Amino acid sequence: MNNLFSIAGQFALRGKVIDVTEFGKGNINRTFLVTMDFDGGRFILQRINTQVFCKPDLLMHNMLISTGHMTRRMLETQLTGGRRWEVPVVIPTGAGKEYLRASDGSFWRAIGFIDGSESFAVINDCNHAQEVGYALGLFHALLADLPPESLADTLEGFHIAPRYLRHYEEVLAKCQLASSPELDYCIRFVGQRRDLAHVLEDAKAEGRLLLRTIHGDPKTDNVMMDVSTRQAVGIVDLDTVKPGLVHYDIGDCLRSACNLMGEDTDKWESVCFDTDVASAVLNGYSSVARGFLTKNDLDYLYDSIRLIAFELGLRFFTDYMEGDVYFRVRRPNHNLARALIQFRLTESIETQRAAINSIIRDMR
User: Fold this and answer.
1) 263: confidence class by pLDDT, cuts 50, 70, 90
2) 3-state SS class at 97
3) Does the pLDDT of residue 2 top 60, yes or no?
4) What is the chain's Cα-based Rg?
């Protein structure tokens, strides 16, 4: 803990650090809330997982490029309509650096805390869902004219489902697993959907879908809500901002928002995809982002919703078989439980294809 206070102090440009506490439940990085000795003095301190982000300096490059661009666009346009919207602010060290490499080689960065806001792991109601969709739509709209080639690919292969499938098959071939109903279900589930992994990448290769700047992890608890107005006021966790397909983001947002039982429920067989929430999310999204979605974009929305839930389940299951080397786990078999939830969510999406496509048609 003393080391945490020392590291936090490197970013404290005024005042004294009086408290450092773990914050949030991220699966990759460790996040802390730092409190200073003056009123309102708080900021977020993060230790970046350099096993996942092996080039963290490029991660910071992308964050600075994207936040700078969003800030300029907010000044030049009326996209926010006068609503409160906070772009995450990178806090430099006392030496003027955007990050800190500690003596043990660990990589740290600090970000401004969005006061008067909170986030939720599960959607509260349809108004909340609409605000989550609005947040992602505004994020895309603010970055719509940022050339994706100006950003580094900090996670090569991220959201490239055919790669995840190949890796899964390699791991499965080498892994000695004792049979169980859950394992048999997962293996059978993936085997029946091998072709699904290729749908978005094939469309990209054929020029039907174009690269844009994406968030990469727009799950519900990365959207900050104003505690008074209940409106979205920011989207955080910009580690995965990079070139990609907006479908990755839209699919991931809906995967997160429309599972009202949450991503850690112990009743995985009861998980379902809530189409009322999906309608609210997409209505909020299209209210600010509809202008840059093409016909091809809309044609592939259902596929993206189905694929991203399947893809995450595949990644969780593969990590379970490899011994939990990527995602942080909090109990035995955690990644297997996570995989079961995402696969059941995929099944629910598949059974409601007609209803989901009807919602998408309303966006046209």
Assistant:
1) confident
2) coil
3) no
4) 20
Written as one letter, the residue type at 3 is N
Burial class (CB in 10 A: 0-12, 13-18, 19+), 310: buried
Which helix (H) or strand (E) segment is 31 a member of?
Answer: strand 30-36
Helices (H), the chain: 2-11, 56-76, 126-142, 161-174, 181-191, 199-205, 246-257, 275-289, 295-299, 301-322, 334-351, 353-361
Tokens representing 224 are 């900050």
User: Can you give the pLDDT at residue 26?
Assistant: 67
Q: Give the chain's mean pLDDT.
A: 93
Q: Kindly state the tokens that stand for 257.
A: 């928002």
Q: Where are the alpha helices (DSSP H) in 2-125?
A: 2-11, 56-76
Mean pLDDT value across residues 42-58:
90
Two structure tokens written together for 186: 């997962």
The answer to whether residues 12 and 34 touch, using CB atoms and an 8 Å cutoff, is: yes
Phi and psi (nearest 5°) for 70?
Answer: -65, -40
d(CA 121, CA 107): 27
pLDDT at 340: 97
Beta bridge partner(s), residue 100: 108
Residue 160 in this model has a pLDDT that exceeds 70: yes
Strand partners, 111: 44, 90
